[in-house]
């Protein structure tokens, strides 16, 4: 390993890894390092190269070194895939794919949709061995949670930004965006224990699947409106404690996500009102108590509800805690 790469690996361990967590705030840095060091296979090499490529991006920007490391990771991952995916190397393929997805989002999220292909690749790997298998492995359940988190957020992103990206893709003769649903394959359906650990995330996934814009004829049906009310009431019943002294970061993030989901549900369905405004204010108060927020969905949905001068700094300066 070159000296410069050693510095980047140290940067990953000390800085970047702190930002890689599951939805329940479990750190993933040490797990990813262990996965990359399992053996000397191409799959392990792909994880290692992807980690230092992400470090290079976050430390130096999208420079030649970043591109070289990224291409090296992709090459190793592709070579490993040609030899087949199995339980012995599935964790490496998933880890490398998700790290490359994050790298692509931060490097080219406004000009490229290539991150979606990494998500699709991860789905294929998970389907090859089943999500239940990942969750049954004592040291890989956190990895399966990470997969689920990315899947839900990709569903939200494609729902609201895919039309714009598709329009760009037509002008540049790119392929259409992948549209395969997560739940089509039974091997990809989260097991009960996984859904319980990620309950607030599952709620968001259900809302994204259900809600339609006010212009959609389905929005005027009594059944749909009744369903909206039931979902809203159900989320409100499970908001969790608003105790400012609550020290459990997972519970805090779950409450923040539920508040953001309620705001999103009201705004996206055209059913906003005093209750939505109250949830937005509660979310802003909760954001105000945090020193950092590494969850883009909650930050975007609640942050843009800021209206007063006191709230505006939170709207613009409370940012994702990526290392500088």
UniProtKB/TrEMBL annotation:
What GO cellular-component annotations does this UniProt entry give? nucleus
- Keywords per UniProt: Nucleus
Entry GO MF terms: DNA-binding transcription factor activity; transcription cis-regulatory region binding
**Protein location:** Nucleus
Q: Which GO terms describe its biological process?
A: positive regulation of transcription by RNA polymerase II
Q: Name the Pfam families for this protein.
A: Fungal_trans_2
**Record-given protein name:** Transcription factor domain-containing protein
């Amino acid at each position: 390993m070159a000296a410069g790469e050693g510095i980047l690996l140290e940067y990953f361990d000390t800085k970047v890894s702190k930002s890689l967590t599951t939805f329940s705030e479990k750190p993933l840095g040490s797990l990813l390092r262990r996965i990359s060091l399992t053996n000397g296979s191409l799959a392990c090499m792909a994880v290692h190269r992807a980690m230092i490529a992400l470090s290079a991006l976050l430390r130096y920007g999208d420079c030649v070194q970043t591109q070289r490391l990224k291409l090296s990771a992709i090459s190793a991952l592709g070579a490993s895939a040609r030899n087949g995916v199995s339980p012995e190397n599935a964790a490496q393929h998933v880890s490398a794919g998700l790290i490359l997805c994050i790298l692509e989002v931060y490097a080219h999220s406004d000009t490229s949709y290539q991150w979606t292909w990494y998500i699709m690749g991860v789905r294929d790997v998970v389907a090859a061995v089943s999500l239940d298998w990942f969750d049954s492995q004592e040291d890989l359940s956190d990895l399966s949670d990470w997969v689920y988190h990315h899947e839900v957020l990709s569903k939200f992103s494609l729902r609201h930004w895919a039309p714009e990206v598709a329009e760009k893709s037509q002008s540049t003769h790119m392929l259409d965006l992948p549209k395969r649903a997560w739940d089509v394959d039974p091997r990809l359906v989260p097991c009960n224990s996984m859904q319980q650990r990620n309950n607030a995330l599952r709620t968001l996934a259900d809302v994204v699947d259900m809600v339609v814009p006010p212009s959609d004829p389905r929005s005027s049906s009594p059944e749909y409106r009744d369903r909206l009310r039931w979902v809203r009431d159900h989320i409100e019943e499970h908001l969790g404690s608003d105790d400012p002294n609550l020290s459990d970061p997972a519970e805090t993030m779950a409450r923040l996500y539920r508040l953001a989901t309620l705001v999103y549900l009201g705004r996206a369905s055209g059913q906003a009102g005093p209750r939505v405004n109250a949830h937005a204010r509660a979310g802003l108060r909760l954001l105000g108590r945090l020193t950092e927020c590494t969850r883009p969905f909650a930050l975007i949905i609640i942050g843009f509800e800021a209206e007063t001068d006191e709230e505006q700094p939170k709207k613009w300066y409370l940012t994702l805690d990526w290392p500088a």
